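Sorry to interrupt, but I need a hand with the structure work. It will help me judge whether the discrete encoding reads sensibly. Write everything out right here, beneath this request:
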Amino acid sequence: MEGASIVLKDVWIEYVIYGLANRSLKKTLFRFLSRGRMAQDVAEERTRVLALKGIDLEIRDGERLGIVGSNGSGKTTLLRTIAGVLKPVRGQIRRVGYTASLFDVTLGMNPEASGWDNILLRGLYLGLSPEQARALSPEIAAFSGLTPEQLSRPVRTYSSGMQVKLAFSISTAVRPDILLLDEWLGAGDAAFLEKAQQRMLELVQRSRILVFASHYDWLLSSICNRAICLDQGQIVADGPVAETLDFYHRHFQ
């Protein structure tokens, strides 16, 4: 396989929000009573929000890219766009390499299914084949610290701590070429948290590209070798981590 890479060319992301016009209670009741016109009115009351505006970004094999910016600047939107969750209204995205997105480690889990079944379900969601997920099951179970009897029970019977341990263990068992992180993952009690931190570091080190959004300067400085700053959906700084963080703090904090 050629080296892992991510290329975004003139990428625009737009959110369409329906029915957000300023409405008084009287106006809302009138539209409800008019019935047939209500759907039309709601359809007409659309608010379009440009979340990313003309993003040009190339990330090469070996880069550890940090993303900084104020709340609402577009950090999470950019990560989800790179992951393929959001489709641009304009522009192109090219991604080379198996990608794992650790945004919500519990996504794809079924509370009615057993822990063993959820290992398979979450594995499939992460892009593993059934065979790969089954092969990783013993390792995932061992890392989670849950017993075979516990893993045979429905996840809804777990404590919140047990659920997080299992979800984290599944999500970090993959070995992606491209790793997308929205803040650093941690999980469980003190004993589990220590090995979870080590697991995250190993996952980052094994990935060929990391894209990491965080509010913690020390994490970005210790892990990343490049950083960009976003403001209102646009890249306003791109360079070494220390320089980008300095730009961010001088202009936005």
Summary: The beta strands are 5-18, 46-59, 64-68, 90-96, 99-102, 178-182, 209-213, 226-231, 234-239. The mean pLDDT is 88. Residues 12 and 89 are 6 Å apart (CA to CA). The two ends are 42 Å apart (CA to CA).
